[in-house]
Amino acid sequence: MKRSTRVQQMDLWVMLLGYVRYAMGRMSTAPGMAQDLVKHYGPGCNDQQLKQIRDEIAAELATYDRMSKPLGMNCDHRTWQQTLALVEAQLLARQT
């Protein structure tokens, strides 16, 4: 039996941001899971919350780019780049 639970927007954002922060730099399935969570639950966040997620991912990518190192493994770095593009697309879609 599938059960659903209501989650307040602020709680959703805290859980999503917390997982994104946890997953950064991991060399596992965590970056892909973070991408899936952002894809599915990002629309439930407000603009300011999505912008913070975007800014934190962008800052971490920029830090690793300056060091000429990938964020996680090369495949993880690409996943974070895709996740950043996903968040930007979600924000852009709200402007139309």
Secondary structure layout:
Elements lengths: L8 H15 L6 H12 L5 H20 L7 H22 L1
- What structural category characterises the helix and strand content? mainly alpha
| Number of E strands | 0
**Helix and strand succession?**
HHHH
Helix percent reads over 70%
Helical segment tally?
4
What does this 3D model show about the protein?
The chain is mainly α. It has a domain of 66 residues. The chain is built from four helices and no strands. Helix 3 packs antiparallel against helix 4. The protein is globular and about 45 Å long.
Keywords:
mainly alpha, 96 residues, single chain, 4 helices, 72% helix, globular
Question: Could you provide a short overview of the structure?
Answer:
The protein is built from 4 helices and no strands. The protein is mainly alpha-helical and 96 residues long.
